[in-house]
Amino acid sequence: MRPSSRDLDQMRTISIETNVTRYAEGSCMIKCGETHVLCTASIDDRVPPFLKNSGLGWVTAEYGMLPRATHTRMRREAKNGQSGRTQEIQRLIGRSLRAGIDRVALGERQITVDCDVIQADGGTRCASITGGWVALRLAINALMKAGDVISDPMLDHVAAVSCGIYAGQPVLDLDYPEDSEAGVDGNFVMMGSSRLVEVQMSAEGSTFSRDEMNTLMDLAEKGVGELVAAQKAAVS
């Protein structure tokens, strides 16, 4: 029934390769099926002005798609000319990653997580959050190894997955053919403990019931569990 022939509750193949760049304090390449995202984490000993002398750290994110990440070439976005979609996604990534951080323990420093989509086949924001957490974990490991951070500021894993109603059936981890035709589409960001960070759901030509939403939540919890297992394997 699914274009990929996957079961309704089956994730795409997940792989996370770490330390893929030379200079970033933390980096990984995450592949969720045919969606590939390069995630790097960079440490700065300064914080934004609104946090100066607060004793609190900050985690932020930037997101972008390479011009030929999709079927046809897109114009390269300059930072001051980013689309609304790009700005919304990078704010989501930043919010999601901050949910898993003790900002007091991090200390007065900023970590910027850059998520660059090399190839897109649906779920790029979810892959960015999941891979971004791995890059962040590795950067914080570097801080702890150097003795710059004493208490581990990472509270829990953070990962994200998409779910939706495609051809009348609830499905897990939508690829592009499903995402483009889904009657209901949702992105679920969760902690390793299954506590919710953020849920984005919308009906696109259809509506959904409370029971259907609960079914999608159950699928998302299953998917995030598999993503967290992949994160653990990547950073072990």
UniProtKB/TrEMBL annotation:
Assigned EC number: 2.7.7.56
Domain of life: Bacteria
Protein name: Ribonuclease PH
Reaction catalysed by this enzyme: tRNA(n+1) + phosphate = tRNA(n) + a ribonucleoside 5'-diphosphate
SUPFAM superfamilies reported in the protein's UniProt record: Ribonuclease PH domain 2-like (SSF55666), Ribosomal protein S5 domain 2-like (SSF54211)
InterPro entries: ExoRNase_PH_dom1 (IPR001247), ExoRNase_PH_dom2 (IPR015847), ExoRNase_PH_dom2_sf (IPR036345), PNPase/RNase_PH_dom_sf (IPR027408), Ribosomal_Su5_D2-typ_SF (IPR020568), RNase_PH (IPR050080), RNase_PH_bac-type (IPR002381), RNase_PH_CS (IPR018336)
Presence of keyword rRNA processing: yes
PANTHER family assigned: EXOSOME COMPLEX COMPONENT, EXOSOME COMPLEX COMPONENT RRP41
Assigned keywords, A-Z: Nucleotidyltransferase, RNA-binding, rRNA processing, Transferase, tRNA processing, tRNA-binding
Assembly and binders: Homohexameric ring arranged as a trimer of dimers.
Known role: Phosphorolytic 3'-5' exoribonuclease that plays an important role in tRNA 3'-end maturation. Removes nucleotide residues following the 3'-CCA terminus of tRNAs; can also add nucleotides to the ends of RNA molecules by using nucleoside diphosphates as substrates, but this may not be physiologically important. Probably plays a role in initiation of 16S rRNA degradation (leading to ribosome degradation) during starvation.
Keyword Nucleotidyltransferase found: yes
GO molecular function: tRNA nucleotidyltransferase activity
Residue ranges occupied by any Exoribonuclease phosphorolytic domain in the UniProt entry: 10-139, 158-223
Binding-site residues for phosphate, renumbered to this chain: R85, G123, T124, R125
Organism (species): Parasulfitobacter algicola
Family: Belongs to the RNase PH family.
